[in-house]
Amino acid sequence: MSNTAQLSARERITSLLDDNSFVEVGAYVTKRSTDFNLEQKEIPNDGVITGYGLIDGNPVYVFSQDASSLGGSVGEMHAKKITRLYDLALKVGAPVIGLIDSTGMRLQEATDALNGFGEIYLKQVMASGVIPQITAIFGNCGGGLALMASLSDFSFIEGNNARLFLQTPNSLQGNHKQKLDTSGADFNAKSGTVDYVGSSELDVLNKIRELITLLPSNNEEAGNVIECSDDLNRILPNFSAELEDTKYAIIDISDNNYFYEVKSEYAKEIVTGFIRLNGITIGAIANRTKVLDDNGQVIDQFDPTLTTEGCKKAAGFVRFCDAFDIPILTLTNVTGYKADINEEKTMAKAAAELTYAFADATVPKVNLIIGKAYGSAYISMNSKHIGADYVFALPNAELGMMDAKLAAQIIYDGESAETINQKSEEYASLQNGALSAAKRGYVDNIIEAETVRKHLVYAFEMLYLKSEARPVRKHGSF
């Protein structure tokens, strides 16, 4: 339950929305059950406040659970208020934002409460890919509520008092909360369950407001565009120095150096988030080999390989962008897959998931090869071979099956070191260079690092009205 230092359910709504824009819906709806003396209990709003309002002028629907009203527990009518909100949001094509603070299922209503959870899940699935769904967690979000949060497109959590768990830490075999708090914000951020951890409730609410301004209201609305005040031909003199921690490369490319990162604590070898190019919202994905702090010191380091978690992180982001017609940019530097026993158990399926997501996406897709691009891992990273519209490469980029020296050692096994070195240079020239790939049509242009921004701006401008037909089907089976 919320403590006195936290905002009330209604205060969260008013802090989230534009001033004086909230209109409540279903204010008088309350429980019907009278079992276990419920008729003697007053449950204002049945534990959830629902309605609509504006965020920076954009219509949104919002529900906020009230932990001071029977713990914000989910019963029959509580759930019906939420599903009613989804019905309205789907009719008008507006996002749904859920503010979670609840003890969970209302035990006094048992099967009715279970039915309510199921009806909410069904609405969330029906809304998936149609309207954006955003969840923010401010108190308890356990059991069935954890599924609600995970069925959303984006989940936010307040870092001090919020708890997200399918099962409590003490119920996990061999664990207890003091050993590892699996319900805490830090654990859920590192596991990829949430997209952002806020330092306060207001921080979370402001971050949601910012996200809403980046996204279309529904899957039929044209992409989000604002007026660009940045120089479209701006030169990037430091771009070559930013290719290890590609978060900074992405920031450098974007209009006014704007970047909205998602899942920053999960699978850090892949960077995902939203930028703007000429005012257009673009989904950006990049391989990363180093993580730098604000002082430029290395705090984490990775091989240029794909991991299971990295593939899943990128694939989910691609699917969201494709569903809402958000163009995709990738910065590619990958030599293969992470090689260890645990990764081998899951890597093939995860790499297939990433490949499928890029190949299935019909939005504008642009790939910039900033380093090495080897083997099937490169193919999975939005290559032209699986449907990228434009592929650019920096002059020193390498594309091919594998490292040139390793290829020469395999081809000329048993030959002298001198021969292998000579053939390695020959292989690099004939097969691994950006120029050789460009001659075969696998790279559209080789561009200088400082000119990257203007090339990407113009590429996405040319692709803005892209339309791509696909075979008629119910949905893919992957």
From TrEMBL:
Entry EC number(s): 6.4.1.3
The CoA carboxyltransferase C-terminal domain, residue ranges: 231-478
GO MF annotation list: propionyl-CoA carboxylase activity
Domain of life, per lineage: Bacteria
Residue intervals of the CoA carboxyltransferase N-terminal domain: 1-227
Name assigned to this protein: Putative propionyl-CoA carboxylase beta chain
Enzyme type, top EC level: ligase
PANTHER family recorded: PROPIONYL-COA CARBOXYLASE BETA CHAIN, PROPIONYL-COA CARBOXYLASE BETA CHAIN, MITOCHONDRIAL
GO cellular component terms, A-Z: acetyl-CoA carboxylase complex
Keyword Electron transport tagged: no
Keywords linked to the UniProt accession: Ligase
Stored SUPFAM superfamilies: ClpP/crotonase
Keyword presence, Ligase: yes
